[in-house]
Amino acid sequence: MNTPQVLPRVITRPMRPRVPAITSTLFKHLLLILAGIFVAYPFYFMVTSAFKEFFEATAVPPTLFPTSWHPENYAEVWSKQPWGRFFANTFFIAGASVAGEIVIAVLAAYAFAQMNFRGKNVLFALFLATYMMPGEATLIPNFVMMSKAPPGVNPLFPIPRLNLYDTYAAQILPFLASAFSVFLLRQQFLAIPKELRDAAVIDGAGHARFLWSIVLPISVPALVTVAILSFYASWNSFQWPFIVTSSAAVRPIQVALNAFSAEAGSHYHLLMAAASLVVAPIVLLYLIGQRFLVQGVARTGIRG
Asked: 20 to 30 Å CA-CA from 76: which of 93, 144, 205, 219?
């Protein structure tokens, strides 16, 4: 007699969803996407709030998308202040600062990188140490230099009084020399092969000809990087222009935005529209020059 065989029972366990490992590429991308959303949300909030009406812009919690679009907010903001004058002032100040800073940084960086003179390393270390000094520490000395000498006080001693208060020059002169720009360009100039310098010397080129004909053409990404960073710093400068300006004729855009915030009060939709106008040129500049910015930072060995 055949006995039935009992088949072994197969125990099946419910499958758990696979959780990506912390070191996996998927987890890293998810983390970066969350960080990107966290960073970009204030900018998104600013842009979308600029198209909302007053009550929707002040609603809590805020709406993700405007229920109705109001582009006329920008026209209303533009009519309340002479924004064209403020933009022109800022473009002139930033352009002059960029041009002056590039000229000074190129000459200083070339001297530190390609020329030999006594005490070069010590002088460069002292110059680089100024980069560690906070900008607030020089506010009072710079303001004294830009102000007018009181009656009976020598305008040249013990500290020069330039009488430049409420002028364009007061907003440009203190920022023409940058230790970071000199350091960045020096790193670029140090990477130039010595054979190029030797070939230029054989052809009879001096330092000025070598700098103009060889060094600068192959250092365009680093120069563009310096220009973008200098323009960005000048465009966003607020504390120093706020101290040394008092009239709208020379007022830059950031100080004008601060004055408009006091006028607009709780009209957040107008404040966001004004802020969008102010940041638009700097965002456009970054989109145009980001390729040179990445190349310049990579070639000079600067890492974040």
From this structure: 93
Q: How many angstroms separate the CA atoms of 179 and 125, rounded?
A: 10
Contacts of residues 144-153 at CB distance under 8 Å and 24 or more positions apart, as own/partner, are: 146/170, 146/173, 146/174, 146/244
Q: What is the pLDDT of residues 33-78, one digit of tens each?
A: 999 999 999 999 999 999 999 899 888 888 888 999 999 999 999 9
SS (H, E, C) 188-212: HHHCCCHHHHHHHHHCCCCHHHHHH
pLDDT in tens, 172-220: 999 898 899 999 999 999 988 888 889 999 999 899 999 999 999 999 8
Kindly report the pTM of this predicted structure. Answer: 0.83
The candidate with the shortest Cα–Cα distance to 256, out of 267, 246, 269, 268, is: 246
Compute how many other C-beta atoms are within 10 angstroms of the C-beta atom of residue 151: 5
Alpha helices in 50-82 (DSSP H): 54-57, 72-80
Angle in degrees, 0-180, between the axes of helices 83-114 and 220-235, rounded to the nearest 10? 140
